[in-house]
């Protein structure tokens, strides 16, 4: 893996970990960090020894948003010609399951980065919000769209128009986060979830992720058809044969990781 300046990468077992590392700026997401997160995630995605990815920050801040200092000098033409934030789109193209381990502030782009991940494991001290309205802008990395799909229009409109923060209990009730865990163990807990996923069949987890994501894009009938065809296709894999044989023979399955 390349050497990075704004993130730290580490592999534990079959889990690739990306730690945002701009502590003085509460992990504000500048262009360099965006490029490095995307590059690290793409490298893990093409590495067959990695079966799940964890993205995390610090206990104080997952990320306090896009870097306001970097953005403050830019003009409309700068934003348009750079297609600012578009590189984040590559993160959601990653096929390996991605888990956000969120503690502390997940504001603006931080909340949006968490929502780009497949599962959000949140510490008890996690706080979510889309405060862009206070800066005279609106969410720009999917906040108005993914938050609305995640928690519904009523709450998303409240969050986006008032910029208020949501504590973790409300975030879990609203369906924004997958699990709430103690702050002391949130990263270990997220890595444990990632480890469980990483030990399953990688090709099948890729298909399962695609099937769930499809539900966000198409009608129910189209989604059901997509799911059924993908389900049928799992029967072309050795892992379906092995998984079902292992059940019948009352033993653990030995899945492939390719
Ligand atoms: N961009 C750049 N720097 C940031 C930052 C951000 N988003 N958030 C925090 N920082 C910096 C602060 O400027 C400060 O740096 P200095 O010490 O050099 O002054 C350092 O991080 C620590 O921050 P605070 O002193 O403010 O810490 P605090 O504990 O008092 O407050 C906070 C924490 C409530 C998160 C506060 O920092 C804050 O409100 N940050 C901005 C949150 C925000 O508006 N995020 C949305 C950004 S816009 C966006 O994300 C657009 C989009 O859709 C992608």
From TrEMBL:
Keyword Lipid metabolism: yes
CDD domains found in the cross-reference section: crotonase-like
Uppermost EC category: lyase
Keywords per UniProt: Fatty acid metabolism, Lipid metabolism, Lyase
Superkingdom, natural source: Bacteria
GO molecular function list: enoyl-CoA hydratase activity
Catalysed reaction equations from the record: a (3S)-3-hydroxyacyl-CoA = a (2E)-enoyl-CoA + H2O; a 4-saturated-(3S)-3-hydroxyacyl-CoA = a (3E)-enoyl-CoA + H2O
Pfam families given in the database record: ECH_1 (PF00378)
Biological process terms in GO annotation: fatty acid beta-oxidation
Family annotation (InterPro entries): ClpP/crotonase-like_dom_sf (IPR029045), Enoyl-CoA_hyd/isom_CS (IPR018376), Enoyl-CoA_hydra/iso (IPR001753), Enoyl-CoA_hydra_C (IPR014748)
Enzyme Commission (EC) number: 4.2.1.17
Bilayer-crossing regions: none
Family according to the record: Belongs to the enoyl-CoA hydratase/isomerase family.
Its job: Could possibly oxidize fatty acids using specific components.
Name of this chain's protein: Probable enoyl-CoA hydratase echA8
Organism: Williamsia limnetica
